[in-house]
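testing teh design pipeline on a random one, pls ignore if ur not involved
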């Protein structure tokens, strides 16, 4: 789902705060990479981000895009998921949440608790484990 202009502006302001809190500068490269994720469906490879950013910033290298993405993950501004095939995707939605992956198209969709996806983690707690987070990936395809 696309974010509207107000949501993008709010998330951009939150990025400013996260960068400053981490003692980092707000740079044009960081803003450009972040905006690409916000204006997309939100699950892109570094190469896809680079292609989108390069339209307006042709001098921005792929390695810079990788560095920016890793920084944004580290400060909690974006998330990162790795598919079963080993592809690393960068997610505009940080934090623990669930995903649906379309097995035909590869499209990744965020699922939230309102989608009825719940995990019973009490069984692990009863076995002596302290759950620190959980991510569920559901696989399937659109009905035709």
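output:
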């Amino acid at each position: 789902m696309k974010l509207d202009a107000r949501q993008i502006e709010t998330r951009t302001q939150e990025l400013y705060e996260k960068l400053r809190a981490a003692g980092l500068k707000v740079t044009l490269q960081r803003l450009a990479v972040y905006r690409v994720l916000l204006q997309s469906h939100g699950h892109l490879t570094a190469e896809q981000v680079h292609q989108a950013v390069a339209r307006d910033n042709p001098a921005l290298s792929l390695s810079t895009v990788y560095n920016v993405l890793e920084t944004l993950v580290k400060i909690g501004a974006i998330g990162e998921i790795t598919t079963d095939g080993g592809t690393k995707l960068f997610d505009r939605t940080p934090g623990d949440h669930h995903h649906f992956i379309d097995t035909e198209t590869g499209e990744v969709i965020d699922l939230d608790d309102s989608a009825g996806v719940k995990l019973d983690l009490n069984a692990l707690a009863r076995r002596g484990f302290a759950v620190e987070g959980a991510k569920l990936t559901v696989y399937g395809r659109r009905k035709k």
